[in-house]
Amino acid sequence: MYFRTKLKEGVITNNPILVQQLGMCATMAITTTLFNGVGMGLSVLIILTCCNVCVAAIRKIIPEEIRLAIFVVVIAGFVTIVDLLLQAFIPALSSALGVFIPLIVVNCIIIGRAEAFCQKNTVGASFVDGITQGLGYTCVLILMCLIRELLGSGRFGGGLIDITNGFRFTMDGTGAGIQLFPSDYGASILNLPFGGFLTLGVIFGTMQYALKKSAKKKEAAEQAAAAAAAAAAKEVDE
Fold first, then answer.
1. What is the distance between the alpha carbons of residues 195 and 178, in angstroms, rounded to a whole number?
2. Do the bridges between strand 161-162 and strand 168-169 make them parallel or antiparallel, or are there none, so unpaired?
3. Beta bridge partners of 156
4. Is the pTM of this model over 0.70?
5. What angle do CA 118, 124, 126 make, to 5 degrees?
6. What is the DSSP letter of 11?
7. Is 144 helix (H, G, I), strand (E, B) or coil?
8. Tens of pLDDT along 123-153?
9. Is 96 in contact with 160 (CB distance < 8 Å)?
10. Element (H, E) at 155
11. Any idea what DSSP says for residue 19?
12. Which string of b and e fits 174-211 if b means at least 16 CB within 10 Å?
């Protein structure tokens, strides 16, 4: 039950990008192919979860005056580990993401969760928070990749899916993806940096509209329940 609540929070009601509005720079920059989006999302998920657990484990011995500096050191350590692993085992992804992997050190999502959640909660709770917040971040990246890739070039799964010799997933970034319609008919502006702003803005606006509509519906239901309870109490008094 707790995991389900945290998952809903991380993916929908408190999504790090669409609600907290954190980490949007890399989100707009690297979401040009599904290969990049999945790689960046999973990297942040792993780093965020590891940092959450580490910060929660040492939270009681961290001096208040230097806590942010310690958070940065912890984050930098895990970022370095992930960066070196990508260079060793998935060099194509490391090359595609470039400077945005090292820049995870200053990603506001990770520092924000350490400051707002991990230093106040247990290791187990922080682990769940890292997983769910990372999944929320990854879902937005994948959604943006799908929209920009499909509408921009008529393709799906660029860099990650190869269908030349049967359907298979590739880890070297060479997969051509699935071409659904000719790229000439795509809105090529979505492949440009401005396309990232435009796509994120549309998704952000849609999410805010849905959340406000849900909040109004919940408020109306609570008011109706309160009115019904008041009416029932009045009948009992009479």
1. 21
2. antiparallel
3. 178
4. yes
5. 25
6. I
7. helix
8. 999 999 999 999 999 999 999 999 999 999 8
9. no
10. strand 155-156
11. T
12. ebebeeeeeeeebeeebbeeebbebbbeebbeebeeee
DSSP for 78-116, written as a single string: HHHHHHHHHHHH-HHHHHHHGGGTGGGGG-HHHHHHHHH
DSSP state of 171: S
Contact between 52 and 127 under an 8 Å Cβ cutoff? The reply is yes
The tens digit of pLDDT for each residue in 169-214 reads: 888 878 888 888 888 888 888 888 888 899 999 999 999 899 899 8
Please count the structural domains in the chain. 1
Residue with tokens 């929070």: 9
Round to whole Å and give the CA distance between 125 and 145: 30
Which structure tokens are listed for 128?
A: 């769940």
Domain that holds residue 71: 2-237
Closest CA to 44 of 127, 129, 138: 138
- Mapped onto helix, strand or coil, the DSSP state of residue 179 is strand
Do 17 and 136 form a contact (C-beta atoms < 8 A)? yes
Q: Measure the CA–CA gap between 181 and 176, rounded to whole angstroms.
A: 13
Cα separation of the two ends of the chain: 42
Query: Within a 10 A sphere around the Cβ of 234, how many other Cβ atoms?
Result: 9
